[in-house]
Amino acid sequence: METEKTLLVIEDEPAILTFLRSSLEDKGWHVEEARTARIGLELAARKKPDAILLDLGLPDKDGLQALKELRKWTSAPVIIVSARGQETDKIAGLDAGADDYLTKPFGIKELLARLRVAMRHASQRPEDAPPLYDHAGLKVDLIGRRVWLRKKEVHLSPLQYDLLAVLVRNAGRVVSQSQLMKEVWGEEREVTPELVRITVHQLRHKIEPDPVRPRSLKTEAGVGYRLEAGED
Amino acid sequence: MISPFWRDYGFATVIVAACTALSFLIYPHLELTNLVMIYLVGTLVVAGRGRRGPAALASALSVLCFDYFFVPPRFRFSVSDVQYLWTFAVMFGAAMIISQLTIRLREEAEVARESEQRGTWLMEKAKKAELEAETERMRSSLLSSVSHDLRTPLTAIVGSAGALLAKEPLRKAPGVRVLLENIQEEGERLSHLVQNLLEVTRLESGVRLQKSQYPLEEVVGTSLERLGSLLKGRKIQTHLPENLPLIPMDPALMEQVFINLLENGLRHTPAGSPLEVSAKVDGKGVLVTVADKGPGLKEGELERVFGKFYHDPSSPGAGLGLAICRAVVNAHGGHIWAEHRPGGGAMFRFVLPLGDTHGN
Fold first, then answer.
1. CA B58 – CA B267 distance, rounded (Å)
2. pLDDT < 70 positions in chain B
3. What are the residue ranges of CATH 1.10.10.10 in chain A?
């Protein structure tokens, strides 16, 4: 096993802490626990964790506030945990520098997948990202700007390709609506959330065998989109 | 009963009569012209009631009474000295001017009072709006804290079952896996139920819809994704035209509608029988159909299934799902109903209106 990684879990519910610790330790993580944001910030400074899991509903301090303070001095991946129906919090968290999020109730598999992707993105610079994406019959070559579905080449409009490319560079990670607007359309061009949705819709009809039940380009309701992590 | 209109004229007459009576008492002791003052005061009292007609009547009657009763020759309208004609003119003029000024003053005071009242009314209205916004904020925060409290133990239950399932040796023990999967799946179902209850509370407490334009396909997609393992072994056929216009909707609530309709279909049809979701433009809206090939609905059930807590005793379910569907669709300005599916099965259909901005 490689050197043990440390995960700092900032969560006030003991029952959730118990199951997280048990299953994460099985998977080779060292777990540090903090029941309040204040202790969490303190431990983050002292233990220098490799990743942080942060509940947005903490008793002593707003989780978002804690996130902003963390982001002043650490770039360790932060995954936020929040309930359904609190999508605005999730978006604010992603804007404030969180890498990804989990919605309660979540499973350990989901958490491990998010951690894997976040760790990978944290360890590589964007220009070092693999230029080839391959998942569920969808192949994207970022250097040759070419896309295939089930070995047949797919022709995308420049806008559709740009959108797909942003998702490929963030493969496995959620990309918020506003992040897509910024990275695909740029600051200067007029763009609405509706236009993003229409572009995703059209893209799905080209790269998904069944666009209603996408296998690669998933919707993160109320937040944005996620391209499933590619096969290594 | 005298109408209020004539009552003020009567009042004017009575006042002038009273002034005349008073003048009879004073007449022996004072200069004749001083009596004019008494009549002027009387006119002022009439004008104080705020109407121009009775004030003018009082002015005219005052002059006539003064002339008839007091100006020599007394008890006759003729006048011995021409200078009294001047006195009458000045007296009438003064009475008219004083009464008109009094009335105007009174009217201005009234306008001022009315606008003050209006101001108070507006302020009360603003306060009420503020209070309503505050109540809505409180409801929302109450809902999210209830949601947090319900979901925290669920997260621990579902997560713990998942954590146990991930432990290799344990999973291989006889019977353990089935039980753990049971805990996990039922926990997820409970979480759907909690979601349903929260949505119905949200709707009934009047929290506003978060509407925006969405492709129907995306919302159907997230519903199917959230149903996840519950759809195991089922074929879900979808017929959603690629060029279907965007529909203004609250995506979280519409997702709940599809989840509820599909769960309802799953519950009432035999395992393995297919479900179908289709949509098409219909006039100024989009007609959505969720159909199954189960035993269908009985004749009297078509409307009753949408009632809150209605449920078929032969199957599980709290009977909230379809009631929520109706509440959500109605909140979107649409309507929902059930039909018999030609060839057997049940068909739930609803129409969502397209906004003015569709078709981009």
1. 89
2. 1-2, 140, 144, 308-319, 356-360
3. 127-227
Return residue ranges of chain A for CATH 3.40.50.2300: 5-123
pLDDT at B358: 43
Alpha-carbon distance B196 to nearest alpha carbon in chain A (angstroms): 12
Exposed e or buried b per residue across B289-322, where buried means at least 16 C-beta atoms within 10 angstroms of its C-beta: bbbbbbebbeeeeeeebbeeebbeeeeebeebbb
For chain B, give every domain's residue range: 4-123, 213-353
Q: Are B277 and B238 in contact (CB under 8 A)?
A: yes
Distance of alpha carbon A63 from alpha carbon A228, whole angstroms: 27
* Segment among A24-33, A107-116, B231-240, B318-327 with least mean pLDDT: B318-327
Distance from CA of B221 to the nearest CA of A (A): 5
Q: Which residues of A touch B225 (CB under 8 A)?
A: 213, 218-219
- Judged against a pLDDT cut of 70, whether residue A199 lies above it is answered with yes
CATH 3.30.565.10 fits B213-353, yes or no: yes
- Fill in the DSSP letter of residue B83: H
Among A83, A106, A214, select the one facing B147 at the smallest CB separation: A83
Q: Which fold has domain A127-227?
A: Arc Repressor Mutant, subunit A (1.10.10)
**CA of B274, closest CA in chain A: separation in Å?**
16
- Cβ separation of A83 and B163 shorter than 8 Å? no
Give the pLDDT confidence score for residue B101 in this predicted structure.
85
Among the partner-chain residues B148, B163, B224, the one whose CB lies closest to the CB of A213 is B224
Contacts of A85 in chain B (CB under 8 A): 143-144, 147, 198, 252
Is the CB of residue B240 less than 8 Å away from at least one CB of chain A? yes
Asked if the peptide bond before residue A105 counts as cis, ω within 30 degrees of 0, the response is yes
Cβ A19–B167 below 8 Å, yes or no?
no
* CA proximity to B341, closest of B259, B278, B260: B278
Closest-approach residue (CA) in chain A for B218: A212
CATH of domain A5-123: 3.40.50.2300
Nearest CA in chain B to A195: B360
Residues 6 or more apart whose CB falls under 8 angstroms from that of A20 comprise: A9, A11, A31, A53, A108, A111, B159
* pTM for the model: 0.72
